[in-house]
Design goal:
about 180 residues, alpha+beta, 2 domains, six-stranded mixed β-sheet
């Protein structure tokens, strides 16, 4: 995520570029369209600020979706986790091999079985972001620590999510649990 301080700097750079590129010469500071190079450069400053201030589509919603799934995971709520899955299925890797195109209902059953081995746990969303150059695809990394049922031994695992924006909400189409 960009800091607020980068907006004016990037806008200033675009403005200076506009002055250099659009200003024909010092002797003739007016462009063929009748505006001065300074006005054109200042117009680019406005464009730069507008472009810089826009977030990728669904970015705040992406973070919210990941946090919602993480909370359901921490509670061992299989149905709550599966509610975030793509309707067409999810690639799922828990403790066994990767299962491709698992229907949300089957994924929910697999999660229920998986959660039986653990008691609660703590969760931390490490990162959730759109993929560079593909604003309708995203990824997330979540850290999870939970005691194994019937023991005092806790395990620490990383959960990786692949997500896509379906036009309304972010959905998970890949979930991998790694040691």
């Amino acid at each position: 995520m960009r800091s607020a301080a980068s907006v004016p700097v990037n806008a200033l750079v675009l403005g200076v570029l506009g002055l250099l590129l659009l200003g024909p010469s010092l002797e003739n500071p007016v462009t063929p369209s009748g505006i001065s190079a300074f006005q054109a450069g200042m117009g680019l400053v406005g464009v730069g600020t507008t472009l810089e201030a826009q977030e990728p589509p669904g970015n705040p919603v992406l973070t919210g979706a990941v946090e919602g799934l993480a909370q359901a995971w921490a509670r061992g709520n299989a149905e709550g986790v599966a509610a975030h899955f793509a309707r067409g299925g999810v690639s799922l890797k828990l403790d066994g091999p990767v299962r491709a195109s698992v229907a949300p209902r089957q994924a929910s059953a697999a999660l229920r079985d998986f959660f039986r081995s653990y008691e609660g746990g703590e969760i931390q969303v490490v990162r959730a972001a759109p993929l560079a150059g593909t604003p309708d695809r995203g990824f997330a990394e979540i850290r999870w620590a939970a005691p194994v049922s019937g023991t005092s031994q806790a395990v620490q695992r990383s959960l990786f999510l692949g997500l896509f924006f379906d036009g309304e909400i972010w959905r998970v189409d890949e979930l991998r649990l790694l040691p």
